[in-house]
Amino acid sequence: MTGFRNRWALSLIVALLLGVAAAPPLSRALEPPRPGEVERFRKFKEWEPRRAFARELGNHKIRPGRLIEALRKARRAALSAAGVSPDTAGPMAQAYAPPPAMAGMPTRGSVKLFALLIDFPDYPHGNTQSFVNNRLFGNGTPAESPYESLAAYYYRSSYGQLFLDGGTTLGWYTTSYNRSTIPQTRQGRESLIKEAITYFRNQGHDFTQYDNDGDGTIDYFLVIWSGPDNGWGGFWWGYQTSFGDRNFTVSGKRLQDYSWQWESNPAGGPFTARVAIHETGHALGLADYYDYDDAVGPKGGVGRLDMMDGNWGDHNCFSKWVLDWITPTVVASGSSLIPLNPSAASGEAVLVMPGITSDDRFAEFFMVQNRYRSGNDQTVPTDGLLVWHVDAALNASGTDFLYNNSDAAHKLLRLMEADGLEEIEQNKQANAGDFYLPGKSFGDVTTPSSVAYSGQPTRVDVGGIARAGTVFSATYAITGTLPPVQIPSAPQMSSVQ
Q: Is 250 in contact with 195 (CB distance < 8 Å)?
């Protein structure tokens, strides 16, 4: 596995030079209904149960523990800035520390996962264990880059901070009964998982190695099953959820989060890592950024242009900031000329809002990054700057974002479309016109504008965009003054579910 680590820097340079472009992918995990599916679901009284199931999974929300952990870091930074040592602040600092199991899968370091392969007499598998393992924890298939393997994708996305190459693929485990006999309930799903895990434990497999932080919990694993899916919001679909039976242990460890996904879609094809990449994003703490129901709230998500929307390209800069992979350059006042290298390789981004700081993840602001066709972004529509409008305000208890991209009054994360056509808001896909290139600008009087959701001008201005090879520079300015953002108060940990 050291092969892709050692080749990482070289591959990024090659990708920067080639700027390979390709057609956007057509699949996503927990993907929206297929054309005509909603009408069929409604006709047969299936739509509401399926939508309720999708919402119950909670994949449209950030993981509470990840949110609280980010809040804790923000508060500690605020204490340090005020001249108070967080280590001596006692209960004030500790109030922000979530229980280890709540934080979930680590976002840095060498993290060991296991994948559980399950097939059935009526649906035998079509991919070998070694083939699946290579596309999860090995080098994968270079021709499928940037989705050649789960490990390679996240090594690049985290800038070499997250290693998933020590994982193990167990299987195939074949049940003694047909898939059709499995109750399509949480209990039915967990009984199947317990049966397969017990089999491998009895074969001598050591599951203690997957407790990465030593808290007695296996934070995340993958379940891959054979056979066809049964549609969006159905039992046999791709999603990430948590294990409910707290009495079940394996090698003395409890189970926490897991992804539940198909071997291939459509059934019978080769296994690819793309759905696993998306679902692992949930395990790390990220939310879906696509719209579950266009009849409620604003439409279109982020136009599929994100791994947590359309399984397309890299994770955006806001997601990477929440995962603690990047520290953006902050423009809180005045004016700064800032060059940005491609975010796929550099992790560079700009955070711009009056009075904002690098620790204010829970306010309204704009983030800008250079999305260049290289690395995990080699399939995006063009090269240029993307401007993101974020409203990360928290709810009253401080345990969740007030907004999401599915059913809120406005979006948690919105892509500002440089061409001003607002096509994403019409449920259309993002395209090259959404990138900010030389000659374009962004401010209070442009379309789209930097006006806040309250309707008040933010005085944020991005202009003078220029390109020099792979680098895009711009002048980021605050042309007026507004009250600074406030760090939210400590949430009550007992209210986190």
A: no
Longest dimension (CA), the chain: 70
The answer to whether the beta carbons of residues 24 and 161 sit under 8 Å apart is no
**In the chain, domain spans:** 64-100, 104-284, 317-495
Count CA atoms within 13 Å of residue 40 on its CB side.
7
Dist. CA 146–CA 344, nearest whole Å? 11
| Number of residues that make up the chain | 497
Q: Rounded distance, CA 171 to CA 169, Å?
A: 7
Burial of 294 (0-12, 13-18, 19+ CB in 10 A): middle
C-alpha pair distances (Å), 376 with each of 57, 118, 156, 309, 432: 27, 30, 7, 15, 17
The residue behind tokens 């056979």 is 227
CA distance 470 to 343: 10
129: left (phi over 0), alpha (psi -120 to 50) or beta: alpha
In degrees rounded to 5, what are phi and psi of residue 273? -90, -5
- Peptide bond preceding 448 in cis form (omega within 30 of 0): yes
- The pTM (predicted TM-score) of the whole model is 0.85
In 3D, which of 366, 381, 280 has the Cα closest to residue 321?
366
pLDDT tens digits, 125-184: 999 999 999 999 999 999 999 999 999 999 999 999 999 999 999 999 999 999 999 999
Alpha carbons 409 and 22: distance in angstroms, whole number: 34
pLDDT tens-digit series, residues 158-173 = 999 999 999 999 999 9
